[in-house]
Specification:
Elements lengths: L1 E5 L13 H15 L3 E7 L7 E6 L13 H14 L5 E4 L6 H4 L6 E4 L9 H6 L6 E3 L2 H5 L6 E4 L18 E7 L6 H11 L3 E6 L5 H8 L7 E3 L8 H6 L1 E6 L9 H8 L4 E4 L4 H4 L6 E4 L2 H10 L5 H11 L2 H16 L2 H8 L1
Pfam family, one: Glycos_transf_1
Protein name: Glycosyltransferase family 4 protein
């Protein structure tokens, strides 16, 4: 199958630093290539892939200090995809509503995976006015916030099976992985770990937008038992996650997916997460972790998490959250979209 993967230009694919969407695009692209498909990746020129790279802009926009208008390069990206569209069987966008109007007016089937939060009020009229756009959610809870959207499937993210694996190290602390920001609630993580009497390591980045939050709310809480070690890459994650008794995810927002949960599971590490967004779809309570409603429940869960077999957690990752499973799910979608619309309607009714 001839497949186009179209990524945002903000980060490279895979990202040099933080970037969940671009990491997932990379995992999907590489898996499709490994399965024998002819894949072209539309992305920034500093991307790395075994697919054919169609470099619309020389480098990731976020790392280019000369760029002030992020929209201009993305308009160029849309036009380049339009020019080459007939070379593909299907176009797969990862750019929210950007492709809707232009690509609804051409013949090549396309779909868009929505990677972000959908509970913003301004999105409702936008997607209500784009009925021809085939949307894929990354969790069922994500799409509940946007009933106006034309969702055709939910596809959970997946990781390459051997990217992160359990390491033979002692579990001596609790882990927090991701970003220091209000919705991720690192303050809760610090209080939970302290109440349980277990050291906490926060492997997290501080975005420019969150510097004030970090300085005012998180830095004063740090100490010998709550250490901010900074952002880590995939090479460091197996040891970091394998050395944790559990991953704490005390979120305070409707998380669309939460890649860190399956990263922990890949290392056999249980997840203790608040009951928001996608959490009940990803964490199987009492099997791969515990779903909690407040700090007291989180402390209690942390004190009994050792009873969860880490081999079972890894096995659940292999069953549900590999990149191969994700790619197979998307291939099913591509094949359905390639059937003429009139034929699809006949088959379903």
């Amino acid at each position: 199958m001839r497949i186009a993967q179209i990524a945002p230009l903000t980060e490279a694919v895979p990202p040099k630093l933080y970037g969940g969407t671009e990491r997932v695009v990379s995992f999907l692209t590489e898996e499709l290539v490994a399965m024998g498909h002819d894949v072209t990746l539309f992305a920034s020129g500093d991307s790395v892939t075994r697919a054919k790279l169609e470099a619309v802009w020389p480098r990731a926009l976020r790392l280019d200090p000369t760029i002030r208008d992020f929209m201009g390069p993305h308009m160029l990206l849309m036009e380049r995809v339009r020019q080459l569209a007939r070379e593909f069987d299907v176009l797969h966008f990862h750019m929210d509503y950007w492709p809707a109007s232009l690509f609804s007016r051409q013949a090549v089937p396309f779909l868009t995976t929505l990677h972000g939060r959908l509970d913003l009020p301004e999105l409702k009229p936008v997607y209500a006015g784009l009925p021809e756009m085939n949307l894929v959610s990354i969790s069922d809870s994500q799409r509940e916030k946007l009933p106006e959207g034309n969702f055709v499937a939910t596809v959970h993210h997946g990781l390459p099976e051997h990217l992160l694996t359990p390491m033979p190290v002692e579990q001596s602390y609790v882990a927090f992985l991701g970003r220091i920001c209000p919705e991720k609630r690192p303050d809760r993580a610090i209080r939970i770990a302290r109440a349980a009497g277990i050291p906490l390591k926060l492997a997290a980045k501080v975005d420019r937008a969150d510097v004030e939050y970090h300085e005012e709310h998180i830095r004063p809480m740090l100490g010998p038992d709550a250490e901010l070690i900074g952002e880590i890459d995939d090479r460091a994650k197996p040891d970091f996650l394998s050395g944790a008794r559990a991953l704490l995810m005390p979120i305070d927002w409707p998380e669309p997916f939460g890649l860190v949960m399956i990263e922990a599971m890949a290392c056999g590490t249980p997840v203790i997460a608040y009951d928001h967004g996608s959490v009940p779809e990803i964490v199987e309570d009492g099997v791969t972790g515990f779903i909690v409603k407040d700090e007291a429940e989180a402390v209690s869960a942390l004190l009994r998490v050792a009873a969860l077999p880490r081999t079972r957690i890894r096995a659940e990752f292999e069953r549900r959250f590999t990149a191969r499973r994700m790619a197979e799910d998307y291939l099913d979608m591509y094949e359905q979209l390639m059937v003429p619309r009139s034929e699809r309607l006949r088959l379903v009714g």
